[in-house]
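Re: that chain you flagged

S.,

Sorry for the slow reply, it's been a week of failed gels. I finally had a moment to sit down with the sequence you sent. For the record, here it is as I used it:
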Amino acid sequence: MGKTKTCSCYATVVVVLVVLLRLGIGCHFLYEGLWKMNPANNFSSKGFLGMAKGPTKELYYMFLPDLGGEERLHMEEAYEVKLEDGQVVAKQRIGWTLPVIEREWYAYFRDYREKYDLNSEENEGQLKEAKAIFNQYVQSLREYTLENREDIRAFIASKRRFEHSLATTKNKAEYQRIRDWDAQMSYRTEGEKFANEPVRMGENLELDLWNILTAEQKDRGSLSPMTYGSNKCALMRWLASLPGLRNFTTPSTMGALDLAVTLGLTAIGLCLILGLCTRLAALGGVCFLINVVLSQFPWPTVYPYTSDMIGHAMVFNKDLIELCILLLLAALPSGRWAGLDWFLWNYFGRFIYRWYGVEKDPLVPDCMNSEATC
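Prediction finished late last night. Pasting the structure tokens below so you have them in one place:
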């Protein structure tokens, strides 16, 4: 009897500590998710995944549309076309443009006219004003392209030579890896600098078109922000229109990734705190942290090196330790000890086990099933 009580005392201490671990990890995940929901924090996975290092970095780069801006910087000659009966009868070259950007602007302006009924006779004056604003921005885009055409061409040519050299080089010495990484980040920064200018023009275009609307037209709601090229996502455009999601959802492929991370972290944290489907939530946290560890590979020789400001670790960093704790939570039924999983087990899980001839959960140690108390 004394041995049983001693075992039960230790079991009680272990249970309390495991529940505290579960609550602490749950609070961490929940706060991360809620912080990312706040539009003021401008959360994006692009910066984190864009800095992925180690052997799996190319896998994470694949999730980032137009990383470095080369797709948006594709240039073509712009033409003024004369039509008769729907047929092109004359075409005059009028400069250069960025077709990925300009096509999206035209699509946005078409949707703008339809949504706010600018094609009607009563809004003729408003349509004329909107066209003047739109044409001014299109002209500015073409001027920007013409002014920077040679610089953009030189940048893209240099970047492609570097990427070819990177793919074919056999020199894996540390100094070369450091030079390659720094050059890669430099090209990416320069490309984003060229591409972000017309993107900001598009944001200003949206704002100027919005400002000429009447209060009645604004009550119809705003159009989804413009997204370009491979970053466009029809599903996210629909999700961004939903009242509960529009405040922290971007209608783009990147927005889909950000939404999945935000909702996933929030759900994992909430389930761990409530003790609901605890093992499944812990495994979800394990999957998330595996991606974090792989993207920021903690091997000492992998460049860029971990900053001294966040501490020093030899492979086992903070993320990997938290991953191990989640594996422990996935192995133990901590949600039954202080959570809603108690109800799931007693009203559903226990009967499923008995259906297969199992009297108790084989993952729970015998002393923790003891009815004795301290």
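What I noticed first: The chain has a mean pLDDT of 85.

Talk soon,
D.
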